[in-house]
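JOB MANIFEST
job_type = single_chain_structure
chain_count = 1
residues = 379
[input]
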Amino acid sequence: MTTTVSPPELSRFSRAAPFWLSLGLVPIAWIGALNGGWTVFLLPICTWYLFSLVDAALGMEDANPDPNSDADLSWYKLITIIWAPVQAITLFSIMWYAVRADHLAGWEVFFLIANMGIISGTIGITYAHELMHQKPKLERWMGDILMAMALYSHFRSEHMLVHHRYVATPRDPVTARYNEGFHTFFPRVLHQCFTSAWNAEKAMLARRDKPVWDLKNPFWRYGALQLGFLILSFLIAGWIGVLLFVAQAFIAIWQLELVNYVEHYGLTRKHLGDGKYEHVLPRHSWNSAHKASNWLLINLQRHSDHHYKPDRRFPLLQTYDKDEAPQLPYGYPVMTMLAMIPPVWRRYMNPRVRQWRKTYYPEIEDWTPYKTATNPLPR
């Protein structure tokens, strides 16, 4: 049974403060840069292992705010808005320092920049995801800047125009198929997401009688922002800087797609015939109410509600019990680690997918077209 958070309580900084824990990753990154050695591993230890342990200690957060609350959400909005300059300053200052520091070996410099990839993927892209769903231009620009730092700007077009519309159908590239291992999913998604994003923007421009090269195409902005960051990397550290920037971007993308893989693995919407599918419901995303990792990921794990009501800001997202949405056994830090070991992943998740089918769709006898994504494409 969930409890309700009142608007006055939700408005307090004390309630928003745990979502500011991401700022603690900045000094941890600098500890690695200033000291080198084993300290370069502190950041992944904290983001993956420490938060997993704290999740186990603190358990679940089952309190739900009133989704129609008139609470002041300024403290929640602020952490997402300021993150783009915080991340950019941290990334490029550490890059500048690391390539000039006499006490750092080559492998230490690489791991320091890899740490920044963890920050860009775990925090930056998660915050960008929140920002791209908002209406104010400032927030959407901050989201674009964060995605450009991961060299994955087209994610906004794919996510907003394709993923949310076609999730859990054969037309959605990032709905991981049953028995599809992550190492097969990842290269498929890299190709299909870019193509689907480009085609979605092209179709939108065509509906306005504009050519694909029109300046209204956001791919111009995506390219300019990404090129700007690559040039800045070159000015700071030459071609080594460009290589390091690309490396951290790849690690950020890897983490994003790991999360995408976890969020919808094996879940499909029922085909109603003639290319029609049921509406998106909480049951079509894996839900996780683990408290600490939801602090770090600004409630991204309440993903069932995000797809059910995409316009809700993260502090208002609802959690669901097992009767309404399928539940992950652990938070994302543990689940993404499991996803990188396909046999272990299948041992944990395939029985849960099969139980999900029995629970919500006992009338479906042949799951083959759902598992292979061979059902008709949605109209």
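[summary]
Residues 3-362 form one domain.
Strands lie at 3-5, 63-65, 271-273, 276-277.
exit_status = 0
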